[in-house]
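We modelled the chain as a single entity of 409 amino acids. Its sequence is:
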Amino acid sequence: MKKGKEIRPHIGIFGRRNSGKSSLINAMAGQEVSIVSDVAGTTTDPVSKNMEIGGLGAVVLIDTAGIDDEGMLGEKRIARSREVIKTIDLAILLITENNLGDFEFGLIEEFNKLDVPYFIVNNKSDLQTVSAELIAKTETELQTIVIDFSALNKAGIEPLVKQMRSFLPETAWKPGTLVGDLISYGDTVLLITPIDIEAPEGRLILPQVQVIRDVLDHDGVVAICKEREVDSYFKRMQPKPKLVITDSQVFLKADASIPQEIPLTSFSIVLARQKGDFQHYIKGTPKIAELKDGDRILILESCSHHVSCDDIGRVKIPRWLSNFTGKKLDYDVVAGLNQVPRYIHDYALVVQCGGCMITRRQLVNRLKPAIDAGIPVTNYGMAIAYIHGIYDRAIKPFLNTAGEKTDYL
């Protein structure tokens, strides 16, 4: 299986206290990267370990607290461990002595609910190997497998890696293309990248870098300029670009400068199609026009960053939404993968950033509670395009590609 660019599959290790989760991680790493102790509950919070595993490549293994932890503090630790399920591409469920009980079935229910692939490892197989009965039960009733492993003598590492490779979905390694299906060999893609107070010193932001790499991977040509140089570019350069991608903050300037026959979209919308729930974004974005006085908006950032005085998510989008609707709206902003502060039903709209810093599964599961509750969801770029009256143009490049269907246009 080929490892995608800049993608590390996230694998969660779950099980009861003293089932050997930390020992398994150490065995795979070939060194002590997790604290191991005979004292139950040594691992108290989820801990991520970036590592290279022979035969698998670069992955992130997440060590979690025991699912049988006790007391009020233990309940909080279990809750933190369960939150990890929303962020992973694969779960490994550790048991010992063929003991598959209510604790494990509770986790399995969560795996299935969030569509997370998993398999079971009977650890400490040097003491007791997996029984034929459990193998049959696992295959017929749970539709997965159980294998033996011994962290003590490292027996079973090769079969374990083989199963990890088998169960990991392809999207964990390599997400879909950003724009590769929109261009052909030698086509030019023009990127409009403002250099303002939010631009990092001496470098481009990650979505811009990701688009550049994706265009080059698909044998295209990249041209880059600031918004002030767009008019000059079109006077001097030939051939005209096949596609133009702009920072959402200068959408209006780009729309005015780019000839209508040339497809135009934004970095955020490109990411929305690759990582987000694009069809729900398309359905949810026009709901902006239906917002009412007193509605509360949830704005989801995928990372923690320095907040400027004119921050796109915390300042500009709220201002634009309020001005566009003419309504008195309330806003909550949640950074990273932190907990949402209210019940999801308290919100009339969810606005998600592009998600360049998280995996597609993390982003999709981030939006799932709102989608399940019937709450409209949109994306930074799509919301900005809608507010500025250029939504149709901004999403049009993606509506003719394979698998993209909508009733909006």
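As a brief sanity check on the tokenised model: The longest helix spans residues 71-84. The domain at 180-270 is CATH 3.40.50.11420 (Rossmann fold).
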